[in-house]
Write a structure and sequence with these properties.
Chain lengths: ~425, ~425
């Protein structure tokens, strides 16, 4: 058995105990939160090592910022873990039930998924966030973080493991893979004997690699090529406000928009308003021919590839369309299926858009920035699924469960 | 674009129309049923070709039987399709909904999965069954059946496509891959741009190959290494009846049992009763040391590998265990996670078993043969999922749907 296979076997055994751990899980979560605060200095010391290595290896300032754990961020982590403890426990909830004509009772109940693998990049706070959510839903978790944060991840996971053990649950409920070579990620993707699901959290490259290479079922998360369509019947002031918010509030996140589609009948009214707002944040517009006729040639010409791109930056593609059908067809072709919005005052346009656009979150007259587990009231979020299997959109602890049928009888045979 | 990529693109376009087709789907299903009956002779003629080829290629009589479509089986197919039409349409059902503090309404609704790929083996009736279920849930389907049934599958799918078109829906809602080489299956497994899910239906070898090689999300179905555990507190007569039924009613199906586990305190009472019943159908027992001490050495000695095997035959492995914990640990190690049963009169034993055994269907005092979409009241079944992601246990049309969030506002920004 390799080291990672051994971790898989230990995780499966821990998962068996966690699946019936009930309220002990909350005790463990609160113990973890306490331990994170008590051991903040240890975490900061380990984190300083990572920051130093990062600077020596030429990480960009924004990556160094993501990596850095101050006292306040550690307190934030602990607060997040405590909040997860307060959420209702999904395990054991009855989903449906009935009595068959032969007297058998069939009950479908929520159960944990089992063993969850999480592959993530440079943010060490994911270690605590993700582990807490997995634990709450009764799952064991195997974490494999990026090499940039390895010292921080080691410190955080050791603190969590000790806290769990003190709370009377197996410390192997949370395990960290300390080998950060590509090999360890590859091996985790083959671990179908022990892993029930693998969730990649990070950039498009990581996610693509996991989806293409994993033998374990994957939940695809987070790539957001999102759109706002300004309908023929739009309030163009509202459209400009929504576009400005959805592009510039936080351009680096997946629910920010990357392309706007403008109905030709309102283009000459809407586009100048939109541009005026975007100019205050120096957003670069990349427009189609008609966009440039209306706004002038200081708008960069959009290439086909721009419509496929998740810029994650102060860049926005723009296309003038003939009809709502063209807008929907454009979204169907180029979108990653994350979040899309229509701005309209028309009842039919709104219904056409919400019924025909096939994305995880479809908005009417609202910023796409609301696609978020916290905003949607899930309590906390493990990621935003852009696939259609198992879960779609923001995923909370409910999405970290499976189900089983329990059938009770008194000797029935078929 | 390859032929299969073109099929993918056409399926995606058909799926867009099907997703909002409402009651037209039922019209199409009834038209399919009518057309299957009307064109029964065409199907039988094509089927005769397959049977002839099969005999020339030395297919076993049981495979020839599976392949054969008489008038009655075609009528059965048509009846099945009509029954699917009568089921309630899951698309558009509201799963949950709430209003956020900022006034946004968030509604989670059921939507079709989109494009479903199905890879199956020699049974041509799967073509109609599977296509009907996919269509009902608003999905386009790409079918790839085995070469043994290619003429039958071609005839059935052409009849269905024409019927769908006459009913006003795109004929590409159902497509059959006529290239039955290994290449076409491999290409389908890579078609992640167009396919939302791939469902293999067939033997363990096919399913393993698809799970290991597919880039498209897979639902794993049907491998059943199922167990009956006879508890210390069992009614041993009931145990013998349940074991006899679960093993011999239809040994070739996935919900038949393959291993029995007997508590040591009842072994000498239960085993002779069990053997006496099984002997009437010449079931070969493969037992552990204690089993053979009780029943004698004409019981074959069980090897470790027997406990991993889905015999699908009149063979049953048997092990005497020290405790319910040992039984649960055995199941955890060897089971495929399909269906397991405890026979007991004890309340605690029943609860321990149902809460700790991690399989799709967990039974108390009942034959495992009931794990079936029809028996559970799902109306019809696309397969029995043995994975934990998305669906677990018998899958009906509800399991062929995904969800999306619709968020309505009046200008909210974040």
């Amino acid at each position: 058995m390799t080291v990672i296979e051994q971790m898989g076997a230990k995780a499966k055994e821990a998962a068996r105990i966690l699946s019936v751990a009930g309220n002990k899980k909350n005790k463990a979560l609160n113990a973890i939160a306490d331990a994170l605060i008590e051991n903040a200095d240890t975490i900061i010391k380990a984190n300083n090592l990572d920051i130093e290595n990062g600077k020596n290896n030429g990480l960009t300032p924004s990556l160094i910022d993501r990596l850095t754990l101050g006292k306040d961020r550690i307190e934030g982590m602990a607060y997040g873990v405590r909040k997860v403890a307060t959420l209702p426990d999904p395990v054991g909830n009855v989903i449906s039930g009935n009595t068959l004509p032969n007297g058998l009772t069939v009950t479908k109940v929520k159960v944990p998924l089992g063993v969850i693998g999480i592959i993530f990049e440079a943010r060490p706070n994911v270690t605590a966030d993700a582990a807490a959510l997995c634990l709450k839903a009764g799952n064991a978790v195997i974490l494999r973080g990026g090499k940039e944060a390895i010292n921080s991840n080691k410190a955080i996971s050791e603190i969590m493991r000790n806290a769990i053990e003190k709370a009377g649950l197996p410390k192997d409920s949370i395990q960290l893979i300390t080998d950060t070579s590509r090999n360890s990620a590859t091996e985790l993707m083959q671990l179908s004997e022990y892993l029930d699901v693998l969730i990649p959290r990070g950039g498009a490259g990581l996610i693509k690699a996991v989806v293409e290479n994993s033998k374990v079922p994957v939940i695809e998360t987070g790539v957001g090529n999102c759109h706002v369509y300004v309908d023929k019947y739009a309030d163009t002031d509202m459209a400009a406000d929504i576009i400005f918010n959805a592009k510039t509030d936080r351009p680096s996140v997946c629910n920010a928009i990357e392309t706007i589609l403008i109905h030709k009948d309102v283009a000459s009214e809407a586009l100048p308003k939109i541009k005026e707002k975007l100019d205050t944040k120096n957003v670069q517009l990349r427009g189609c021919k008609i966009t440039r006729e209306i706004l002038g040639n200081d708008v960069v010409e959009a290439e086909e590839s721009d419509y496929y791109t998740e810029f994650l930056d102060y860049i926005l593609a723009c296309k003038v369309v003939e009809s709502i059908d063209e807008a929907i067809a454009h979204i169907s072709k180029y979108s990653s299926g994350h979040s899309e919005c229509i701005v309209t005052k028309d009842y039919n346009s709104a219904n056409t858009f919400t019924s025909q656009v096939d994305s995880a979150a479809v908005y009417v007259n609202t910023s796409t920035r609301f696609t978020d587990g916290g905003e949607f009231g899930l309590g906390a979020e493990i990621g935003i699924s852009t696939q259609k299997l198992h879960a779609r959109g923001p995923m909370g602890i409910n999405e970290l469960t499976s189900s089983k049928f329990i059938i009770e009888g008194n000797g029935q045979i078929r």
